[in-house]
Design brief:
Number of helices of chain A: 8
Strand order of the largest sheet of chain B: 2-3-4-7-6-5
Number of strands of chain B: 8
Oligomer: heterodimer
Distance between the termini of chain A: 90 Å
Order of helices and strands of chain B: HHHHHHHHEEEEEEEHE
CATH architecture of the largest domain in chain A: Orthogonal Bundle
Radius of gyration of chain A: 21 Å
CATH architecture of the largest domain in chain B: 3-Layer(aba) Sandwich
Order of helices and strands of chain A: HHHHHHHH
Shape of chain A: elongated
CATH superfamily of the largest domain in chain A: RNA polymerase sigma factor, region 2, helix turn helix motif
CATH class of the largest domain in chain B: Alpha Beta
Largest interface: A-B, 40 and 28 residues
Structural class of chain B: alpha+beta
Shape of chain B: rod-shaped
Chain lengths: 185, 234
């Protein structure tokens, strides 16, 4: 009877090892994208890190529910967005402060070439309803249908928002160019 | 395709594979230029979005999960659960050690020594079993009875579960005592001493065989044990 228990234990630990490997593969494949996504969503490095950690922790706990590895990215973004929403429930007052500070400073995204810094400033000034589908499309490589599902919108609305997002960015860039010309001229 | 719907589609989905869009761009170089511009802007956006990830972030995530798993396991088992688990284990172990490593074997022994069963056996065999008859049966276990163990009232092969044994019922001073001979290989887990409601049991190894003695009087059991140790040879 004892030897049978031992076998069960070892099969349990083999399952744990398999789960661990699967988890580590997910972390390695998606941690960068998720962190970037969280940064653009939250605009605070510490909170973004925290939300990504919570996301992966949730992912670990319910890893068995992920049947198809191909769906992993969508699955993780769903968890991340939920975790971020929970943060709103928990810390409403903190968030208002952070948002005010964060929007003002594009340097939070790290030192980069001037043009990227400018693009980052423009993007962080986009309203969330435009920024988020754009991040999903560019950063995560989601299709229109996938974005629609994530944001619980119909695809036409998503497409309109993506169009407006790029339109606003383009206009903002043109505005910068005009400003530059004026200064030069 | 008109200019506006072309631009709308490109702005919404620069990597579109819509054949109408592709055809429209082929037909009109200006449209293709616009498309290329938007693609270039998207490439810039992708670069701008690729903000640096904190150092060792992946390792941190893996480590954090491990720690959480660990602390959760600890949290999930508060002291009283741990205590309950310990108590349950002690009870379980005591149960196993008291009654038998192979509990089934001990239970089977008990089943063979209830009064009703013993009376049947005695009735079948008669009042006395000769040493020769016992030795015929002992041959199965490659053993010989050459000494005095008392008045044997019955000697029969019994299956203790799946284990073949020679069950002898011996008349003691105050009551009946049971002696089982089994192959040691099949009964290794049986504890040396075991007891249950008023019954005392002991088992000991004698060369290749194991002798199990069960009775209701501890003194008689140990007396028969001493006798059996010198009377049997295997």
């Amino acid at each position: 009877m004892f030897s049978r228990n031992k076998n069960q234990n070892s099969s349990v630990s083999i399952d744990m090892m398999k789960k661990q490997k699967r988890y580590e593969a997910l972390v390695k494949a998606f941690h960068a994208d998720l962190f970037r996504y969280a940064m653009w969503l939250i605009k605070d490095k510490a909170i973004a890190e925290d939300v990504v950690q919570e996301t992966f922790l949730r992912a670990w706990k319910s890893l068995d529910s992920l049947k198809d590895e191909a769906a992993a990215k969508s699955w993780l973004i769903t968890i991340l967005r939920r975790e971020n929403a929970r943060r709103f429930e928990r810390k409403q007052f903190d968030l208002v402060d952070i948002d005010d500070v964060a929007v003002a400073d594009p340097h939070i995204f790290g030192d980069v070439a001037l043009e990227h810094r400018e693009l980052r400033r423009i993007m962080s000034n986009l309203s969330e309803e435009y920024r988020e589908p754009l991040m999903m499309q560019i950063l995560m490589g989601f299709s229109g249908d996938e974005i629609a599902e994530q944001l619980n919108l119909n695809k036409n609305t998503v497409m309109t928002r993506l169009f407006r997002a790029r339109n606003q960015i383009k206009e903002a860039l043109l505005g910068e160019e005009l400003k530059g010309e004026q200064v030069n001229g | 395709m008109d200019e506006l719907s072309f631009r709308r589609t490109i702005y919404a989905e620069p990597n579109t594979t819509d054949p109408d869009i592709i055809q429209a761009a082929k037909d009109d170089p200006a449209k293709q230029v616009f498309w290329d511009e938007v693609k270039a802007m998207d490439a810039q956006l992708a670069q701008a979005m690729s903000i640096p990830v904190p150092e060792n972030f992946a390792d941190k995530l893996i480590l954090r999960q491990g720690m959480d798993e660990f602390s959760q396991k600890r949290q999930k088992r508060p002291w009283y659960i741990a205590l309950a688990a310990s108590v349950a284990m002690v009870v379980g172990v005591s149960y196993v050690t008291l009654f038998a490593g192979n509990n089934g074997l001990a239970n089977d022994i008990y089943a063979h020594i209830n009064h009703e069963y013993m009376n049947k056996e005695i009735a079948m065999t008669g009042q006395h079993v000769s040493q020769n008859v016992i030795n015929e049966k002992m041959a199965t276990f490659n053993g010989v009875l050459s000494g005095e163990i008392g008045d044997v009232l019955s000697a029969n092969y019994c299956y203790l579960g799946t284990i073949k044994s020679l069950h002898m019922i011996i008349k003691g001073k105050t009551g009946l005592i049971n002696l089982f001979v089994v192959d040691n290989n099949n009964s290794k887990e049986l504890k040396e001493d075991f007891s249950t409601n008023g019954l005392v049991g002991t088992s000991f190894l004698l060369q290749s065989a194991k002798i199990i003695i069960v009775g209701d009087d501890k003194e008689q059991v140990s007396h028969l044990q001493t006798a059996a140790q010198s009377a049997f040879r295997f």
